[in-house]
Amino acid sequence: MNENHIEHYPVVIIGGGQAGLSASYHLRQQGIAHLVLEKNRAMHAWESQRWDNFCLVTPNWQCDLPGHPYSGDDPDGFMKKDEILAYLAGFRAKVDPPIREGVTVRRVGPRTDGGFLVATSAGDVSADQVVVASGGYHEPIIPRLAERLPASIAQIHSAEYRNADQLPAGEVLVVGSGQSGAQIAEDLHLAGRKVHLAVGNAPRCARFYRGRDVVTWLADMGYYDMPVEQHPLREGVRDNTNHYVTGRDGGRDIDLRKFALEGMQLYGLLRDYEEGRLLFAPDLRSSLDEADRTYNGINAAIDKHIAEAGIEAPPPSVYTPVWEPASERESLDLASSAITSIVWCIGYRPDFRWLDAPVFNGAGHPQHRRGITAREGIYFLGLPWLHTWGSGRFGSVGRDAAFIVDHIAARLTRAGQDSAA
Q1: Separation CA 100–CA 287 (nearest Å)
Q2: Are 258 and 374 within one domain?
Q3: Residue 89 · residue 73 · CB < 8 Å
Q4: Three-state DSSP class for 256?
Q5: What is the pLDDT of residues 44-78, one digit of tens each?
Q6: What torsion do the CA atoms of 4, 8, 11, 13 make, to the nearest 10 degrees?
Q7: Among 85, 114, 195, 377, which residue's Cβ finds the most Cβ atoms within 10 Å?
Q8: In the chain, how many domains are there?
Q9: What residues does 379 pair with on adjacent strands?
Q10: Per its UniProt record, what Gene3D superfamilies does this chain match (predicted)?
Q11: Residue 387 and residue 384: Cα distance in Å, rounded?
């Protein structure tokens, strides 16, 4: 197709989630014409990839999308799934984005004039600049060992999990103890299912400490505003697993040791399947201990903040284990167990194969500085730690979007000045 005879936009946004619509909001504020392309429906992941009892793990007051702050009557509570969907529907209505849903982007590549050609399932468009706001959670990860498991074992990814009743009768193995794994294990446990949990290296934190939500303390301490360049791990922090905690029933800690006391079976990292046996690493004790060290370390940082600021608060405390593994169970005969289903909670991998631009590192992850890449006109938005810890949350994605849109506007102004000269 002749590149001069297709629809053209100054900016095309790929992805219609909260990141893409935040960018659309700020582009509208600056009067910049644009198009949003979404392969499913706007905000679809919150409805289609969350379980029935899902709720936020950060307080409602942190929900502050552009022009759409939380306005409910429970700022310190945690919105449930239907409330989150209603909040996001209200945001979309306010933004009123120029969006095309059900459109898959197949390729973004350079145009001969220096812009970009965006090939989609509904035809091609061109753009001067492209904002990639599709996130980094594209392909659910299920290990290849799953192919060798008996056909009688039902297997789903956390993105497909809705509730305990969708799984066949019997015991359930949950693999992974990050936010989704820990919360899904709890959901099944509370539903009365016998749960086996293969624990990973995810850290944990307290829900409440010394009279306040830990998130509120950390916000006051500036943790959510710390740029990635100032973090001790620098860009390496982007590979960290999120802390597990829950907002369920008003919010509480998730303590895997307590679950063990209540009958949940804990194992170390699942590493293989051989001759009918699941094999686990002998690292359960060390994983639990490390999670507790993080928990106590965060609380100690809060203690220091309280002392330095002279804040009156309830006395400090240190978590002490309520359960210890008697031994490391390194194998489980699957056939003789009562396990009938497995929920894989080991995350997602990014898939940016459709983006033909030299903006990726050796691991296939985007290289950028606050969302701006070395390729003029290509931006990323909505990734974890794009700029700060808050970048992947409702509270800070709008700030990141405003920064990128300011850069876009400046570039368009320069281009206009150059063409007029």
Answers
A1: 45
A2: no
A3: no
A4: helix
A5: 999 999 999 999 999 999 999 999 999 999 999 99
A6: -110
A7: 195
A8: 2
A9: 131, 372
A10: FAD/NAD(P)-binding domain
A11: 8
